[in-house]
Design goal:
alpha/beta; 5-stranded parallel beta sheet
Length: about 550
């Protein structure tokens, strides 16, 4: 396994993300910390938790019961209660069968940084994966994408009612069994296939919730590296963060104002990742599932019949905190209320929406954690690398359209001056027609028009001849063109970064369940401080 690096500027990363990892002064008003390891180290060393952290520690330890070895919950409570312990957190929606590659890249990044920070600060730094168990974008998480020839086989779990409910509460049922069979059918036979299918079988048991299944799968993969889990979709957690939820209600107008102003400032030079709404809250309705709580003129409404004053909604919060659920802006505040969290590890989209949140943290009397960019990477399989070695392109070139790559190759490997030769031919014909019309004193407009029409037809014939020559070159270079198509598809499937398209189980099936352990080991050898470039990992 070899690892090379590419500058983010050579790939399709947003300007905001590139400026953030480069520590541009343009972003000083949007983040508390500069993106440097020394600043992260200081944030960990100086991190303190207000008040007694024991209650939150017990909650998180109990949350981890399905993912820990027997008898270790009390140990985890003790560790999280210790004032010397801090956490570094990442998180993700509960994608089926683990989700796309960036899920493991987030996890690897968090484990790697936690190890390094533990060594460098003397504090106990625990890597945490936040299970986004209250999200309800079922359409986004319900797909497993497996490469197949020069296409992607997208296997989708159908569910008519799932979109109305938090993903963490949905359970493995008969529909899932059919979905599981399709996924297994898409995995090619390898020495590791039985091991990988067993991992998924043991994780996604009948009637087990998606939250528990997803967490168990990741714990089987990364628990040995000290990874623990957290989430908020249970009553005790909501009771613990009632103060946070109450502020989201009482300060709704101020929240909307500061978020809108910050988002507008960010959108001037960059882009606004998340649209600002009139509330940070959702409501769990018995009949309609998770619905947005809208706030206007002192009233709180769901559009499904609920309509309460601020005083009434606060009373409902005291009585039924489990009915309230955070949106994308409130979730980080909930997270940092439950965990002794010094840093969050996120991708480009998360970095962008944290840039909208600085005044929100201030309004809640909290400090934004250090935001660390996760590892971004492209995995290059041996067969793909062999094809790349036969082609004249660098890896970033394959982000271009296949048609552009093909044309470039044919122009440079057929006759590099083919286009200019044919254009010169047509120019000479045009010039010859003009010279002859002048030499024979062709003054009749009708004859001139006819002569020019003959010249245009001749030009069309020249274009047809050029096309035939290009096709002849294409047939001759068919093997190389197929290689270009294969590499393009492997590195940038559907014209997107590989890490956003392909499910990570595909690589485990081909290269073994320990592939991520091996990558972690290589990162340890590199001893990189922060992830400030794109990794090219040749398997």
């Amino acid at each position: 396994m070899d690892i090379d690096h590419l500058d983010f500027n050579s790939l399709s990363f947003s300007r905001l993300f590139r400026d953030y990892v480069d520590n541009s002064d343009n972003l000083s008003d949007f983040f508390v910390h500069k993106h440097s390891y020394q600043v992260l180290k200081q944030a960990v060393e100086s991190h303190k938790v207000k008040g007694d952290r024991t209650a939150a520690a017990r909650l998180i330890a109990r949350f981890n019961e399905p993912f820990l070895a027997d008898g270790t919950v009390d140990d985890l409570t003790e560790v999280l209660s210790d004032e010397n312990t801090v956490t570094i957190t990442t998180g993700q929606q509960l994608s089926l069968m683990g989700g796309p590659l960036y899920t493991v890249f987030k996890t690897i990044s968090t484990i790697h940084l936690a190890r390094k920070l533990s060594r460098d600060t003397g504090r106990r730094v625990i890597p945490v994966f936040w299970l986004a168990d209250e999200d309800h974008d079922f359409e986004e998480i319900s797909v497993v994408a497996i490469p197949e020839h020069n296409s992607i086989r997208r296997i989708t779990l159908p569910c008519e009612t799932c979109a109305r409910h938090a993903a963490g509460s949905i359970r493995v049922d008969g529909n899932f069994e059919n979905f599981r069979s399709e996924v297994y059918d898409a995995l090619v036979p390898t020495d590791f296939r039985e091991q990988i299918t067993k991992l998924m079988d043991d994780s996604y048991l009948a009637d087990r919730s998606y939250r528990e299944s997803f967490g168990i799968m990741l714990s089987k993969m990364f628990g040995k590296h000290g990874l623990i889990f957290a989430g908020s979709n249970f009553t005790e957690a909501k009771q613990h963060v009632t103060g946070c939820l109450k502020k989201a209600i009482e300060k709704a107008d101020d929240i909307r104002t500061v978020l809108a102003e910050q988002s507008e400032r960010l959108a001037e030079p960059y882009h606004q990742q998340v649209q600002v709404s009139d509330s940070l809250l959702f409501w769990h309705d018995d009949d309609h599932g998770r619905v947005r709580l809208r706030h206007e003129n002192g009233r709180w409404e769901t559009g499904s019949g609920l309509s309460l004053s601020t005083e009434e909604i606060l009373e409902r919060l005291d009585e039924e905190p489990a009915r309230f659920s955070p949106n994308v802006f409130l979730r980080p505040l909930i997270q940092d209320s439950l965990l002794p969290n010094a840093a969050y590890v996120g991708g480009p989209a998360e970095v962008a929406y944290y840039g909208q949140m600085k005044p929100l943290y201030e309004l809640f009397g909290m400090k934004m954690p250090f935001i660390a960019a996760r590892m971004s990477a492209t995995l290059v399989e041996p067969a793909v690398q062999r094809s790349m070695d036969e082609l004249p392109f660098d890896l970033p070139d394959y982000a271009k359209r296949f048609e552009d790559l093909e044309q470039h190759y044919l122009r440079t490997h057929g006759n590099p001056e083919l286009d200019s030769h044919f254009e010169d031919w047509k120019t000479r014909v045009d010039r010859l027609t003009a010279d002859m019309m002048e030499a024979i004193d062709m003054e009749d407009p009708g004859l001139q028009k006819h002569a020019l029409a003959i010249t245009r037809e001749y030009g069309k014939s020249i274009d047809k001849l050029k096309k035939k020559m290009v096709n002849a070159v294409r047939q001759k270079e068919e093997v190389q063109i197929n290689r270009i198509r294969k590499v393009k598809h492997a590195l940038f499937p559907n014209d997107h970064l590989q890490e956003r398209e392909i499910s990570f189980v595909y690589y485990m099936n081909k290269f073994g369940a320990d592939i991520w352990d091996r990558i972690l080991s290589r990162l340890e050898e590199e001893d990189g401080s922060l992830f400030g470039c794109h990794h090219v990992i040749r398997l």
